[in-house]
Amino acid sequence: MKINKILKITLITLVVILLSIISFVGIYVKDKGRMVNIIKDYNLGMDLEGYRRIDINVDTSKEKINYDEEGKVITSTDTTTKVASSEEKAKNDESVLVKENYKQTKTIIEKRLKTMGLSAYEIRLNEENGDIVLNIPEDENTDVIVSQIASQGKFEVVDKDTNEVLMTNDDLKSVKAGYGTTSYGTTTVFVNIEFNKEGTEKFRNITNTYVATKTTNEETGEETTKNKEITLKLDGGAIITTHFEEEVTNGVLQLSVGSSSSSSAEEMQASLTNANNLSALLNNGKMPIVYEIANNQYIASEVENDNIALFISLAIIALTIGMICLIIKYKEKGILSSISLIGYIATLLLVLRYTNIVITIYGLVAIILSIFVTYITIVKVLENNKKMENIERAFEKAILRIMLILVPIAVIAVVFAFNSWLWTFSFGTVIFWGIAISLLYNVIITRALLLEN
Hints:
Layout (H helix, E strand, L loop, with lengths): L1 H24 L2 E4 L2 E4 L5 E2 L1 H4 L1 E8 L3 E6 L17 E6 L8 H17 L6 E4 L6 E6 L4 H8 L5 E5 L5 E4 L3 E10 L5 E9 L1 H13 L2 E5 L6 E5 L2 E5 L2 E6 L9 E8 L5 H19 L7 E9 L5 H50 L3 E2 L1 H28 L2 H27 L4 H29 L3
Parallel strand pairs: 3-19
Antiparallel strand pairs: 1-2, 4-8, 4-18, 5-6, 7-8, 9-10, 9-15, 11-12, 12-17, 13-14, 15-16
């Protein structure tokens, strides 16, 4: 029986050591000549790492529109057609500048951010004039997000020569980006534009119309090929100009935006990021109003790194003193309890990394609070065991008492987690996971370590 107990304790201790190494140190592998930690990093909040403040304002400017003799609009790329008349036209008509459209724009921006994988952000809308203030974390993708977040998302398929609009956002069903493999074995970044039922029929007709046509000169017999082409546009800017070799009936247009045969791994990743952001723009609808970036400013964190390090150091010292007290008072069970507590901390920190929880200052407080609650639970177990001389009953009694405290905390945590403010969201989600893991961990690991057999 004693041998089984030793084997059990040894096995659990080894698991705790492994978890601690992974959580506190990481797992390093060699990548391109340097050692890289493959364990996911923490998702730190804007109050810890600084953030980008972006003022997105309603575009009040006007644009000059030129017309030819037939009254058709002359495109900006057309430098040969003679201008017959011109007019100044506001980019936003007064009729669209209403509160409903402001709110819809805010909703579209939020959807885009989530599609781009950004969960930590703060957005405020001035419902009187439509101006938006957006705060997002500062990282390697921030500039890309800033360059695209205010785009209207106006999608058009136009005749290259006449600029006639053939398809719009109303014809889209979904847009997806990803990696694919060509028939030559090279990897490519692609964007799949899938049209809805009505758009599929329009696109089928386009693929039969915009093709390469061959003509023969009757006098010389020389054969020439002329391509009738379309241009895909986003917010008036050309994405690609193309024609078709055969009819497309499945309603899917696939665009290649990068290939491993001509691009480095970093360029391929950048192409994929741009492709994903394009899909984020088109999948979440066209903004009813044209906006512009009025301000793009980095705001440094008000919290000094030294202060955070001091806070964490004090927490570690307090925890160490607490574990020493356990060992002095409860001897062997104090040692086992300390091992269990270290394993809980390692587990909690790993879970917080892989659940993509944003860690703010309040999140750090929630982590400390979760560890404190777990420490108190273990102390109560040991105190009850000393009185009852039965670790099983002592454990059950301690868990029941702690549950009376944890239930209201859990309710508050859930309320905070559904709040739109980032600090309450961080505090609530960390506390929720801290409590859930504490209960499961104590029932499985701590209980197994402290049982007599």
